[in-house]
C-alpha cells in the first residue's frame, strides 16, 4: 500500500490514500467525511508483563517485532533507552524474496519487521513487549495497520529463543485476560526468527522524513505516545542505523 524510492518521495496515489484515511475529504455534493488518524491519545496504557527475562545478562540481546509499516515501529524503538540498534527488514519468508517490491505483493510470507538489539541491563524484553503492544501498533488489527493492508503488515513476534516465546505467550494471555483492548489480540507468535535487513532507503525513514504525510499521520504520534506513557524509557535522540555506519 505504501511506496518509497531512493529520494523518499511519496507517490500521488499514496498521498490520496492518506488523505482519505487520515483527514477530512470533500466528497460529491459537498459531503464532508472524516476518519480520525492515529493519535498519541490512542496509545494504550497496559500492565507490565507478569513474566519477564533476567536483566542481569550483560550480553546484548535481539528481539524481532512486526507491527505494520516498519518505518513507525523502527522509529519508536529508536527512541527507547537501552536499545542499541533498530533495523527495518523482513521476517517470515526466505532470503530470495526479502526485497521491498516482492514483499509488497503480500505473497512471500514475509512481514515488515524490525530487529531490535538491546542491553537487557537497561531495558528488559518484557518492557519492549509492553511498548510494542501499547505504543508501536494496534495488536487487534488482523493483517493490517491503519491504511496498510496485507499479511506483510501483520502483527507478529518472531521469538529469538524458547524463553522469549514463553514470555510473549504469557503476556498475550495476560493482556487478553485483562481485556485491555476492545478486541482480542491477533498477534502471531512465530518461532522462526529469520531477519533480512531492508534496503537503506527504508532505514531511519521517520527521522529523515518527518514531514512526509504518512509519517505525520501514522507514525509521529506513536513516538509521542512513547514519550507520554514511558517517560523514563524515552530518549529524545534516536539511535540511527546510518549514523552507526559512518
TrEMBL record:
Keyword terms of this UniProt record: Oxidoreductase
Active site, UniProt feature: 69
Record keyword Oxidoreductase present: yes
Enzyme class: oxidoreductase
Every Peptide methionine sulphoxide reductase MsrA domain range: 63-214
PANTHER family, per the entry: PEPTIDE METHIONINE SULFOXIDE REDUCTASE (PTHR43774), PEPTIDE METHIONINE SULFOXIDE REDUCTASE MSRA 2 (PTHR43774:SF1)
Name of protein: Peptide methionine sulfoxide reductase MsrA
Species: Ottowia thiooxydans
